[in-house]
Amino acid sequence: MRTVKTALIGAGFVGPHHIEAARRLGFVDVVAVAGSNQASAEAKAAKMSIPKAYGSYEALLDDPEIEVIHNCTPNDLHLPVTMAAIERGKHVIADKPLALNSADAKTMLDAAKAKGIVHAVTFNYRYNPLMQQARVMINRGDIGKTHWVHGCYIQDWLLYPNDYNWRLEKEGGESRCVADIGSHWCDLAGYITGSRIAEVLADYTTVYPTRQKPKGTREAFAQSSGNEEFDEYPVDTEDFASVLLRFENGMKGSFSVSQVSAGHKNGLEIEVDGNKAAVAWKQERPNELWIGKRNEPNGWMLKDPGLLDPSIAHYAALPGGHGEAWADAFRNLLRNVYSFISEGRSMEADADKIEFPTFADGHESNCVVEAITKSAKAGGVWTKIAR
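Above: the chain's sequence. Below: its structure in token form.
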């Protein structure tokens, strides 16, 4: 593979994980990082052993050595950073949600197409080996005609009123919990079943209309130090939500999301029921795929490249019994993106070889989240996805 030069914009919680996954590929050279100021960028660069540090994303984007950028900035910066990168002809790997709203996402998608750059969104749960296996099984009819997909994505990192993060602020968008983690669940449901969501009905709840915002800074998922000073901050985004779904192929669905459910750290769960069998997966037990039967014993398929369908066995890098999880799925996604870039492929000419979520998938996700939020704000009414 030709070595690809890449850079990171936004080195908060998820940014370093992008870099770790890219470096594991062996043919990606991380050459620069941009921070909110020069001192911050230099500190981040030193911590991650990145040679160049820039005090602004504009300065980084003017570096001709850089071919690809990872946009890991807060949600309200996704549009300006991505558009500036596209203007300079840089390929973009964007963290989700792609944008604050579907209109901004469409602007990015259209600009990326016009410029001919490679564009990707990090819906990484698709690339867990057993989610790939479930997709193969569902598509070839192993579980029969699907009629229901259901599950949840629940966490507890905002359980207390003094838990705080930039996602709680108005600049983060109209939706918080659904946009942040529900977007992952919806993308995964559509990906493994092969059908898009057509209509939604949602109910939102805000447990803490007012939270204690620390006067200093605090990293994502970090708890209060106990000696911080706070300001009262009004919050109008959802702490948890319940959603009913109708899919384009006639299948029904339901899921719940929460960031205030004690004891649940990253509890993404999904089950697809068909008229022959069912398959289910839990992200916190990623090496097990449950297969449900009626007239036979239920079973567990363990992650093992020798057991996976040959078409997707390469997504398991280790032998059976050697666990693979979140970071490995992330590497799998980036391997697909960077291989595409390294081989000099075109999003238009090589569309049949795209094996990663694109800005089109990011736009789709924004459309779904908008419809869910619209339904909830209308008091829980069926709302069509406006694409």
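The chain has two domains: 4-124+333-357, 125-321+366-384.
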